[in-house]
């Protein structure tokens, strides 16, 4: 008789804030808000103590101070958080062969082939929690959800936070669906919730009772099928081991500036620096790209991409494509006279046209990747350039960051690639598989 599927979802409680309290015992029991390291004023994580006052992810620092006057702000340190994640991953990998790292603070374990090795599910969950307490830290806890698929296991992990454990079965699914919000389940966000509420649907149980024809009329066939699967508690996705990495189809970098930037030279320096970062990742992965994309967001948003006839893995080549797109948008250009352009106030926001060149977020991506080994060497390319790049990469790997960089960005602030909450960096994911 086949074994019934059993999936665990293990989710850290207030992860970033708990890590900071782990690193600094003086912060334990104190309301804290973790903010972005680059100085932005949005809270990216709140401690349990701060959450009691209504502070949550997305709260602005000044609003947090109004809600909780004794809150302390701590700048994020994702490299240290990632070290905790790796310990967490090591612990969980000892219980079953297939462990999927969903994000920096959450993973799935497929217990289907291994549950018979343990006294009971309750014993297993308790053992995992105890090991995290003893091997990671007492201030760091996890909430665990169990079910027969990933969708419901993830839902269960959030039902009794912090330090909880909930199992969703076929028997209790209806009772849980009848009382939780639509957005409690992964796959339904705020916009879908508003539209579902307009249809008189406020719970997942009500969504299940809604005829699929009504959903198709409102959302279209694809989204209606997705919603119906959620309503029925169905999910056919498998737990994919973090050791089995998908083929890499793109490499990119997203950067939120510490303040709104109007100086076009600084903006282009940051673009160049990001191109260098992406190029380093491509070379580490032994890849080259044909397509380069750029997105600039500020008072307006522009994005585009260009596919070339050649493959590249050098920052200068990537930057030239980005500069082509930048120039084609006439970003930051206006018709004001030269005297006005030299005015320091003008450089910020007095000229409506010039403010259109303000940037707060930059995204660059590459796609159309191929293995460098599969490409023929160009007759027109100087092989000594590759030797120089390899030497530069060795120096940067040895000393960290961009120790050796282009003269164009010599005076620009150094950017540093760190693991983010979703572990979107392909190179970091690749290293875990080694």
Task: Describe the structure in brief.
By secondary structure, this protein is α+β, with helices and mostly antiparallel strands.
How are the elements arranged and paired?
Blueprint: E1 7-12, H1 15-23, E2 32-35, E3 43-46, H2 48-51, H3 61-67, E4 72-75, H4 78-93, E5 99-103, E6 106-110, H5 121-135, E7 142-147, H6 150-157, E8 165-167, H7 173-177, H8 190-198, H9 204-209, H10 212-219, H11 221-231, E9 250-261, H12 264-284, E10 287-298, E11 301-312, H13 315-328, H14 338-342, H15 346-350, H16 352-355, E12 359-367, E13 370-371, H17 383-399, H18 426-433
Write a concise keyword list for the protein shown above.
alpha+beta, Dna Ligase, domain 1, single chain, 5-stranded antiparallel sheet, 3 domains, 19% strand, 5-stranded mixed sheet, 434 residues, Alpha-Beta Plaits, DNA polymerase, domain 1
CATH class of the largest domain: Alpha Beta
* Average pLDDT metric: 87
| Anisotropy-based shape | globular
* N→C terminal distance: 36 Å
Rg over alpha carbons? 25 Å
Largest sheet: 5 strands, mixed
Read across the widest sheet, the strand sequence of neighbours is: 5-6-1-7-8
How many domains comprise the coordinates? 3
Give the strand content: 15-25%
CATH topology of the largest domain: Dna Ligase, domain 1
CATH superfamily of the largest domain: DNA polymerase, Y-family, little finger domain
Q: Would you report the number of β strands?
A: 13
Structural class: alpha+beta
Q: Number of helical runs? A: 18
Please give a structural write-up.
α4 (78-93) packs antiparallel against α5 and α10 (212-219) packs across α11. α6 links the parallel β7 (142-147) and β8. The protein starts with 6 loop residues before the first strand and ends with a helix. The protein is built from 18 helices and 13 strands. The protein is of the alpha+beta class. The protein folds into three domains: 1-165, Reverse transcriptase/Diguanylate cyclase domain (Alpha-Beta Plaits), CATH 3.30.70.270; 170-242, 5' to 3' exonuclease, C-terminal subdomain (DNA polymerase, domain 1), CATH 1.10.150; 250-433, DNA polymerase, Y-family, little finger domain (Dna Ligase, domain 1).
